[in-house]
């Protein structure tokens, strides 16, 4: 009784109340070990649930929401889609684990009714801090490694192509130079007015099935981008620079192509058709172009930089126009 009175007296003297008196004890190290085991169980459960959910996805989800006609369209589409899906699966698993641990900590370590004071503080947990640094770096390294491997294969142009096609972007259409057959096809901008048959007037790129095709890409005026969505591949077209890539179309059919770089007022109508056909049909199309007189190649002389007058020529033309106007004015005054 005296001890209790003395304790009460010390509280009165200091003006502070001992917050540890009468509250439930905080968790022991054994409690933390149990918490860690529960955290691991939650993480494993979330990962299993994510895998189970992904295994029951629709066809659109399983192909990563890529176009349906991209499946088996070229020799690269499977590689590209595998990289895309793998990246998303890894990201979803990591996200599920992180959010699961966050939510679990919010629930498991919430303040209980009747608890007061500050929980046990843990500082400078070096192994945990090293783990937080090493694991993300390893994840980024793995993702970079797979990306670099696939990019090296997709952009490899060391093999001799069966067909070489020069594709030239221009505002707002396309020119196709079939270099091996020495024929060309020049397109005009599409007029998409909602009428049937409008797409048939677009320029059409012919490709032989199961043949290695090399695209030599450039532009006449501004930067464009060659994109066939079903091929899961696009590449910039820059004036004065020739970019290249190779592809083997593996399925016959009709596909759509478009410019993927904002290039001016009618960018949305810079479209073209793609026909992947048999070798016999491809050869026949080359013969048809030759019969129409579309022989030779459309060169850089049609580029805007070559067709536009130089500064000196423009200045001379301006001076000539000024002299002509002055002479006409003088003649009119004399009359």
Report on this model:
This protein is of the alpha+beta class and 335 residues long. Helix content is 44%, strand content 18%. The protein has 2 domains: 29-110 and 124-154, no CATH class; 163-307, Immunoglobulin-like. The protein contains 8 helices and 10 strands. The N and C termini lie far apart (133 Å). It is found in: Membrane. Residues 15-33 have a biased composition (Basic and acidic residues).
Task: Write a brief caption for the model.
By secondary structure, the protein is α+β, with helices and mostly antiparallel strands.
SSE diagram, text form:
Layout lengths: L1 H13 L14 H27 L3 H4 L14 H32 L17 H29 L8 E8 L2 E6 L4 E4 L17 E5 L4 E7 L4 E5 L4 E5 L5 E5 L5 E7 L11 E7 L1 H13 L12 H4 L3 H24 L1
Parallel strand pairs: 1-5, 4-10
Antiparallel strand pairs: 1-2, 2-3, 5-8, 6-7, 6-9, 9-10
Helix pairs in contact: 2-4, 4-5
